[in-house]
């Protein structure tokens, strides 16, 4: 008797050959098969007359074969069969490549349903390789049809039939993993109904009910699993931090902290006092003051004798942190060190010796902090800056320098909290949604190529006023095979030097330069040794240049909104009024709509929501966090409301059954164990 883990080759009607084809899609078991969801759907319930057909659309038409099909051979040994179909409104030409059997299967005078993309022109419409079915014997027409992701050797028809055979084999096995109370509270259909109608929807309403159930289930299971992952930390002891008066730290600062900064510090300190290892993400907009939150945590850890390590993605950013934090901590008698790849050998030896003896309270550095010879006397807090620049493994490697240290992750990519809880797995989340006083709004303009001359004049005006300018290009060099030199940073910098601004100091920065070379360029520019810096997106994470007042982004349509926001954050860091100019050649209506968002708001969270809706969540994920399962049906660009609903439901259910030990939680627990590929005992 089959179960959901049965190999698909043993399912009636599939066999060895089809199973081999399905394996290319990662389908090995019956569970895999019924859980392979359609990418989209086509409504083939209605037929059009030939006159009603519009070019470019995929539709069904009911028509009669008017001519005997004619077969012929063309280049490459291919066959082509041509025929003409008609109805009362007009004629439709049909072409079939490598389907020689159509010559004998299509009969003049008989009526068929043809489904395909309409091509040609208004006077002569045609379909190439349409689906053909006889009326009354329809399988792929006459209803809402699922369209599955495919690979070589696997057709829609093969998948369609295989899924149907799979559902027939397991209808009696589809137990509901959602507790009845949860399902009823959220008005969700039963599992069997959902599987049936997600693959073979009876109608649009049934499809909507099925999809809502499946999306909710996926997000609910994931949310419950993540909560169980977080609960594992309750069985692990972290560095013990005693209570300390944070006001002492606040009073020593040269400026008052925002409410958001104080809230984030309080959340982190509470974690560190709990006796369990903190595992927290502090995410906030560009300039929201995350570094001061990190500083507060370092000070707090030091009050209990714990060392801290702060890892930045670039040497120049690490040095910036050191220059900002070392004088602050000196007031408290705390010792800081900077450890990077360029640290001199003798200085490095001294730092390593002091770290091992406990003579350094905070070590700031790059990947150099990960090398085997770096050891700590009492490492209690690990901080990683610009999370999206680090992989999970790098963060974990730094954490292994001690036993269960507190972990604080900083990210300048503001995303909705509900999404952050999914992307960052078992990290708790602190949101920085407030900018420090004095942080200036950057005026943003989206313009076309016709404004080129005015933009150049504006750049010159900024430089003449004593300020500096960033110009960002999406590509590095002509090897990218795009002729516009503005898309190629190196070529564009050359043109600016020679033709546009021959009297100004134009610098160049891109990712293909050696690390030390990049550092030198940024350091020189920050020191004022340059008027214009032409760069690729490598400048997105870099040293502060308070004197920079203008950011020009070439071919802005090639960037996501969140990335544009990050780039814009490179200016507006000083006292002078700052500007961002988004240049786009021949912008489409969609491009205009996207870029308009940038001109309306400086709120990174609002921008990320818009970016999410327009482009989906792909850019936010980067390297998968903690090996989390991928989403199979939920689309976070349009399912955010359902994500929030599922997370709240999971929170409520886990509160009443934390270990999922109640009988009604049994199927849910099994699904979580399977999804996360962990043993039952590992979840507690």
Layout: helices, strands, pairs:
Elements: H1 15-23, H2 30-34, E1 40-43, E2 58-65, E3 70-73, E4 79-87, E5 90-97, H3 102-105, E6 111-120, E7 125-128, E8 131-134, E9 144-147, H4 156-170, H5 180-185, H6 191-199, H7 204-231, H8 246-252, H9 259-273, E10 279-284, H10 290-302, E11 307-311, H11 315-330, E12 336-339, H12 345-357, E13 362-365, E14 379-384, H13 392-399, E15 406-411, H14 417-423, E16 428-432, E17 443-447, H15 452-464, E18 468-472, H16 489-500, E19 506-509, H17 515-526, E20 532-535, E21 548-553, H18 561-568, E22 579-583, H19 589-600, H20 604-615, H21 618-621, H22 640-656, H23 666-676
Parallel strand pairs: 5-7, 10-15, 10-16, 11-13, 11-14, 12-13, 14-15, 17-22, 18-20, 18-21, 19-20, 21-22
Antiparallel strand pairs: 1-9, 2-4, 2-6, 3-4, 4-5, 6-7, 6-8
Helix pairs in contact: 6-7, 7-22, 7-23, 9-10
What structural keywords apply?
684 residues, alpha/beta, OB fold (Dihydrolipoamide Acetyltransferase, E2P), Rossmann fold, 4 domains, 7-stranded parallel beta sheet, 6-stranded parallel beta sheet, 23 helices, 37% helix, disordered C terminus
Q: What does this protein structure show overall?
A:
There is one protein chain. 37% of the residues lie in helices and 18% in strands. The protein is built from 23 helices and 22 strands. The strands form four sheets. It has a seven-stranded parallel beta sheet with strand order 12-13-11-14-15-10-16, sandwiched between helices. Helix 6 (191-199) crosses helix 7 and helix 7 (204-231) packs across helix 23. The longest helix is centred in the N-terminal third of the chain and has 28 residues, at 204-231. Residues 477-486, 619-627 and 678-684 have low confidence and may be disordered.
């Amino acid at each position: 008797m089959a179960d959901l883990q049965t190999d698909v080759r043993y399912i009636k009607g599939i066999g060895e050959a089809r199973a081999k084809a399905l394996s290319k899609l990662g389908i090995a078991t019956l569970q895999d098969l019924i859980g392979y969801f359609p990418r989209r759907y086509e409504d083939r319930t209605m037929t059009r007359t030939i006159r009603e057909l519009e070019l470019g659309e995929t539709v069904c038409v009911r028509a009669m074969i008017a001519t005997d099909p004619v077969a012929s051979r063309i280049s490459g040994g291919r066959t082509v069969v041509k025929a003409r179909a008609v109805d009362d409104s007009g004629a439709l030409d049909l072409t079939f490549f490598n389907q020689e059997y159509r010559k004998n299967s299509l009969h003049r005078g008989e009526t068929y349903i043809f489904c395909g993309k309409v091509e040609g022109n208004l006077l002569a419409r045609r379909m190439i390789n349409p689906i053909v079915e006889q009326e009354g014997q329809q399988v792929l027409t006459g209803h809402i049809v699922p369209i599955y992701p495919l690979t070589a050797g696997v057709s829609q028809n093969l998948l369609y039939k295989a899924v149907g055979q799979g559902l027939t084999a397991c209808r009696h096995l589809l137990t509901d993993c959602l507790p009845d109370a949860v399902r009823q509270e959220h008005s969700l259909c039963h599992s069997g109904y959902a599987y049936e109608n997600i693959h073979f929807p009876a109608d649009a309403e049934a499809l909507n009910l099925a999809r809502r159930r499946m999306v909710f289930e996926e997000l609910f299971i994931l949310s419950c699993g993540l909560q169980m992952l977080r609960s594992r930390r309750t069985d692990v002891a972290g560095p013990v931090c005693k209570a300390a008066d944070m006001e002492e730290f606040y009073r020593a600062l040269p400026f008052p902290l925002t409410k958001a900064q104080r809230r984030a510090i309080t959340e982190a300190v509470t974690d560190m006092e709990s006796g369990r290892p903190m595992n927290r993400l502090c995410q906030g907009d560009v300039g929201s003051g995350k570094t001061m939150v990190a500083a507060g945590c370092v000070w707090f850890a030091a009050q209990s004798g714990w060392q801290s390590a702060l890892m930045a993605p670039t040497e120049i950013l690490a040095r910036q942190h050191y220059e900002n934090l070392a004088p602050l901590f000196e007031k408290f008698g705390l010792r800081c060190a900077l450890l990077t790849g360029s640290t001199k050998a003798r200085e490095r030896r001294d730092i390593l010796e002091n770290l091992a003896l406990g003579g350094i309270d905070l070590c700031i550095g790059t990947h150099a902090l990960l090398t085997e010879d770096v050891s700590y006397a009492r490492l209690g807090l690990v901080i990683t800056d610009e999370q999206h620049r680090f992989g999970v493994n790098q963060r974990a490697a730094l954490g292994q320098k001690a036993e269960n240290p507190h972990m604080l992750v900083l990210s300048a990519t503001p995303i909705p909290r509900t999404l952050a809880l999914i992307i960052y797995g078992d990290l708790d989340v602190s949101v920085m949604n407030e900018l420090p006083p004095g942080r200036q709004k950057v005026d943003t303009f989206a313009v076309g190529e016709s404004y080129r001359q005015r933009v150049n004049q504006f750049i010159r005006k900024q430089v003449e006023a004593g300020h500096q300018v960033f110009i960002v290009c999406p590509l590095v060099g002509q090897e990218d095979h795009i002729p516009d030199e503005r898309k190629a940073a190196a070529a564009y910098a050359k043109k600016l030097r020679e033709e546009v601004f021959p009297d100004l100091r134009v610098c160049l920065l891109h990712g293909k330069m050696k690390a030390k070379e990049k550092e030198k360029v940024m350091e020189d520019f920050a020191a004022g040794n340059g008027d214009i810096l032409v760069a690729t997106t490598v400048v997105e994470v870099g040293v502060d240049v308070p004197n920079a007042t203008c950011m020009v982004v070439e071919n802005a349509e090639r960037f996501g909104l969140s990335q544009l926001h990050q780039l814009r954050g490179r200016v507006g860091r000083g006292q002078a009024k700052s500007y961002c100019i988004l240049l786009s050649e021949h912008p489409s209506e969609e491009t205009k709509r996207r870029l308009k968002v940038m001109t309306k708001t400086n709120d990174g969270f609002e921008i990320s929501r818009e970016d999410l809706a327009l482009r989906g969540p792909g850019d936010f994920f980067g390297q998968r966090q903690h090996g989390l399962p991928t989403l199979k049906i939920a689309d976070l660009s349009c399912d955010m409301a359902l994500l929030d609903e599922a997370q709240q439901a999971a929170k409520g259910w886990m509160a009443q059954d934390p270990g999922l030990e109640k009988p009604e939680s049994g199927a849910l627990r099994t699904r979580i164990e399977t999804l996360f590929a962990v043993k039952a005992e590992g979840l507690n």
